[in-house]
TrEMBL record:
Lineage: Bacteria, Pseudomonadati, Gemmatimonadota, Gemmatimonadia, Gemmatimonadales
Residue span of region Disordered: 164-187
Organism field: Gemmatimonas groenlandica
Name recorded for this polypeptide: DUF948 domain-containing protein
Key words, A-Z: Membrane, Transmembrane, Transmembrane helix
The UniProt record lists the keyword Transmembrane: yes
Transmembrane segments: 38-59
Length: 187
């Protein structure tokens, strides 16, 4: 039977016996009950202390977060001009780098063109030097041949003139009109 269904019956009983005293006996509390109660009060007080400490900690953290937010806001307002300047410097640096890159590309192109021209000029000069050397070799050969022919002709004239004059004049001991050099024999 539930409490709600038993309620009207108890009320009727109370109405029927108005003089009835209902006594309830309270068991005597022992040492364990007293210590349990004291411990429950201590735990309650400790819980309240922890709750108060937690609230104070949260409030101090909230104040710290506010100060941190204020510091961040102040730093952000103070660093905005620095960031703007840094951004401008980076932009200028990019422009300088692009200009330098363009100039370096131009210089590189000019150096390549000059290098090609110098290589072509060196090739042409080398060919001309080779041509001049070939001409000088041919000229030297011709001069040597001409000099040998001229020396031979002069020697032949001398020897012939000496023979002709030896036969016209009185006889002399025969000797060579000119000394014979070892170089002349080779020619």
């Amino acid at each position: 039977m539930t409490f709600v269904s038993a309620l009207p019956a108890r009320l009727l009983q109370a109405a029927a016996f108005p003089d009835t005293i209902i006594a309830r006996t309270i068991p005597e509390r022992g040492m364990l009950d007293w210590t349990s109660g004291v411990l429950q009060i201590i735990v309650l007080l400790l819980g309240i202390g922890v709750l108060i400490a937690t609230i104070l900690l949260i409030l101090s953290m909230r104040a710290g977060v506010r100060k941190f937010n204020e510091t961040v806001d102040r730093l952000s307002t103070e660093t905005k001009p620095l960031l703007a300047s840094a951004t401008a410097i980076v932009g200028d640096a990019r422009e300088v780098v692009s200009m330098l890159r363009t100039d370096v590309e131009r210089v590189t192109g000019a150096a390549e063109a000059l290098s090609e021209q110098l290589l072509d000029a060196a090739d042409r000069t080398a060919r001309r030097v080779d041509d001049v050397n070939a001409v000088l070799d041919v000229l030297q050969d011709e001069l040597e041949d001409t000099a040998l022919s001229a020396v031979s002709a002069i020697r032949g004239v001398r020897v012939g003139a000496g023979e002709m004059t030896a036969g016209l004049s009185h006889p002399r001991p025969r000797r060579a009109p000119f000394p014979v050099d070892a170089d002349d024999d080779e020619a």
